[in-house]
Design brief:
Elements: H1 4-15, H2 22-34, H3 38-42, H4 53-62, H5 67-71, E1 73-76, E2 79-82, H6 95-104, E3 112-116, H7 122-130, E4 135-140, H8 143-155, E5 162-166, E6 181-186, H9 199-202, H10 218-223, H11 227-230, E7 231-240, H12 246-255, E8 260-264, E9 270-275
Parallel strand pairs: 3-4, 3-6, 4-5, 6-7
Antiparallel strand pairs: 1-2, 7-9, 8-9
Helix pairs in contact: 1-2, 2-4, 6-7
Length: about 280
């Protein structure tokens, strides 16, 4: 049986046709199988035989299952979040929404925050970590996703400040009893129905959290007209967008009587629209 170092080389080679981050994936899976950190693996702090679970974990990745689902966790904005196939995997690009919110509310800390389609709770929990006096609501229609978001809120010490509730913006009257908010965040479905997605996304992440009609704008058409009724005076809303949707989403915001500003991610792509 190969040692851990040799097994990592072999695993990276096997994953090279499946993943653009083959070596990283192999290291993360090995650390998980060993019950140690990736740093321990990188620094050679573990020796001995390759653990028995490693091959099964590797096979899952070879079948395009995302590493985050295999590990059951995903980092986001300095937080360690639980994830499952019930929720989208939080991505670094979505941190643009939080950074844009931080800048927009500089000197004006929000008291009430709403996260529409909260999923894992990533945006809500990150925002509450920035503003320790704020309270927030995560609206989510999926029972399974609400369970994940609740676990993440509790694990991050936010049980008293984060309330995860059922709600569906495709149903009439969904805004009733919510009240008004100083900050509204949303990462709604925005992928075109026939978009060419990687197998790890299309086959494994929840379709109801990805797809939004032929042009990817169906959910914005429902959400954005509701924003003026949900925003408190002087409030700010930020929605994540696809790279080609800045103009269309900004136009929807203006049609709703809101000013719109596009923010860009670290790669220089349009990533979210700020509305006020």
């Amino acid at each position: 049986m190969p040692d851990i170092r040799a097994a990592l080389r072999e695993a990276a080679e096997r994953l090279s046709a499946t993943s653009d981050t083959a070596r990283l994936d192999a290291e993360l899976l090995m650390a998980h199988a060993l019950g140690v950190t990736r740093t321990d693996v990188l620094l050679g702090r573990v020796e001995g035989e390759v653990p028995a679970p490693f091959e099964a974990l590797l096979q899952r990745r070879l079948n395009h299952e995302p590493v985050a689902y295999i590990l059951g966790t995903q980092p986001f904005y300095g937080l360690d979040l639980v994830v499952s196939p019930a929720v989208l995997i939080p991505r670094g690009d979505s941190e643009t929404v939080i950074e844009a919110a931080r800048i927009a509310r500089d000197g004006r800390p929000p008291a009430r925050i709403l996260d529409l389609g909260t999923g894992s709770g990533a945006l809500l929990i990150a925002a509450l970590s920035l503003w320790p006096e704020a309270e927030g609501i995560g609206l989510e229609r999926s029972d399974s996703a609400r369970e994940v978001a609740t676990r993440n809120a509790n694990a991050n010490g936010l049980a008293a400040r984060a309330r995860i509730i059922a709600g569906d913006w495709t149903r009439p009257g969904w805004t009733e009893a919510l009240g008004r908010f100083d900050l509204i965040l949303a990462n709604p479905p925005y992928v075109e129905t026939d978009a060419d997605l990687a197998p790890s996304v299309r086959a494994h992440e929840p379709a109801e959290a990805l797809f939004a009609g032929p042009d990817g704008l169906d959910d914005y058409r429902l959400l954005i007209p509701a924003m003026p009724g949900l925003l408190a005076p002087g409030g700010t809303a930020l929605v994540e967008i696809g790279a080609a949707q800045g103009d269309a989403v900004s136009a929807l915001a203006r049609d709703a009587g809101l000013a719109a500003k596009v923010h860009f991610d670290l790669a220089g792509r349009p990533r979210c629209v700020e509305m006020a």
